[in-house]
Write a structure and sequence with these properties.
Length: 374
């Protein structure tokens, strides 16, 4: 039986790889596929810099004029740029995608049957935007995989010392790609350390985790110093600092991103709730997860809220840029977890939650949307 399940797992991964490659080749912005726009996504700002940086790294050039972002993600492309110069990120991104499928399956499997987990993964791939933004080169792709690995180790499992050590190494490695993304998984580490009480053991393991992450951050700083001449800032982070953060328009931006951008931004693109109406039923599923996982479930919900709030506070992220300039990819790691929560609402919430909790969690989001969307 185990051998059969192993063969089925390999067959599913092969099918997922074929789906990915087929979607990749069919993408309208694929480089070389359109004679009118032969550069494809290499003509876009972010992707153009990834390619330029990857080419420079392949030649062992650290000239700061060839680099804009942290060099972790371009370094992956540099491994393949000589062999497939027009598609150097295809293999790294495909491997990250397959890794996500494996890790998400294990996350789903902790709450669902094997068949349900496979079907839910298939539904994830059918969700508009999710697969698309795993095809386009983005530095969030490896950090998205890293985030799922940390969730599996520290939230879904009952974290042991080894899990905490591996998760710390993964979080540290994320700093080489997108240092800010480490902040989003911080609550998961707090909950894991609290789970590892008593105090003496928890403090020792917290020091160990901090030391591992700090070692990677130090490496990232040294790389920045070697490439850009400064320890912290890259041209990208300087631009981010210049744009800044603020909460004065937070609720307007939240409404625009979730409900409609027509009134505020004169944009007819469907927003999140129009694309994914099942988001309205996620809260009871979140309550089920918290009931099952305790403080670790609360930490997972906190990580999602911190991510969402951070980007809504970023002055260059709102409904007008999320889909026009593809910045929505910052948030897409949340989508499979939200889908799991929505399914748990249908599957388990009516059995596990008391009616006085279930009804408000079901009705409140719908009433809020209905009250502002008239």
């Amino acid at each position: 039986m185990s051998a059969l399940l192993g063969r089925l797992g390999k067959a599913m991964l092969l099918l997922a790889a074929l789906v990915y490659i087929g979607a990749y080749l069919a993408h309208p912005a694929l480089p070389g596929a359109n004679q009118l726009l032969p550069l494809g996504w290499w003509g876009w700002w972010d992707q153009g810099w990834y390619l330029k940086s990857a080419n420079a790294l392949a030649q062992l050039s650290f000239d700061p004029s060839s680099h804009w972002y942290p060099v972790g993600y371009p370094a992956l492309g540099a491994l393949f740029v000589r062999f497939i110069p027009q598609h150097p990120f295809l293999i790294p991104n495909l491997l990250c995608f397959l890794g996500m499928m494996v890790v998400l399956f294990r996350i789903f499997r902790a709450f669902l049957s094997r068949l349900e987990s496979v079907v839910l993964l298939g539904v994830c791939l059918l969700q508009q935007l999710f697969l698309e933004h795993l095809l386009i080169p983005w530095s969030t792709i490896p950090t998205q995989l890293g985030t799922y690995v940390i969730i599996l180790l520290l939230v879904v499992r009952r974290p042991q010392r080894r899990d905490l050590l591996i998760a710390s190494a993964v979080a540290g490695a994320m700093a080489l790609f997108r240092p800010g993304d480490v902040v989003f998984v911080f609550p998961l580490f707090v909950a894991a350390v609290c789970y590892r009480l008593p105090l003496r053991r928890a403090v020792g393991e917290a020091v160990m985790a901090v030391s591992v992450v700090a070692g990677f951050i130090l490496l990232a700083l040294l790389i920045n110093r070697g490439v850009f001449g400064v320890f912290w800032a890259t041209p990208y982070t300087k631009v981010v600092d210049g744009i800044g953060f603020g909460v004065t328009s937070f609720w307007i931006d939240l409404y625009g991103l979730l409900v409609s951008a027509r009134e505020v931004f004169a944009l007819d693109t469907p927003m999140l709730l129009e694309r994914y109406p099942w988001l309205l039923i996620t809260l009871p599923g979140v309550a089920v997860l918290i009931q099952r996982l305790g403080l670790r479930g609360v930490a997972l919900a906190a990580s999602v809220l911190i991510t969402f709030s951070f980007y809504l506070a970023y002055q260059d992220f709102d409904a007008s840029t999320a889909f026009r300039f593809n910045t929505i990819h910052y948030l897409l790691w949340i989508l499979p977890l939200a889908l799991l929560a929505a399914y748990l609402t249908l599957r388990s919430a009516w059995k596990r939650l008391r009616l006085r909790l279930l009804l408000p969690l079901l009705c409140a989001p719908c009433l809020c949307v209905a009250s502002v969307h008239v």
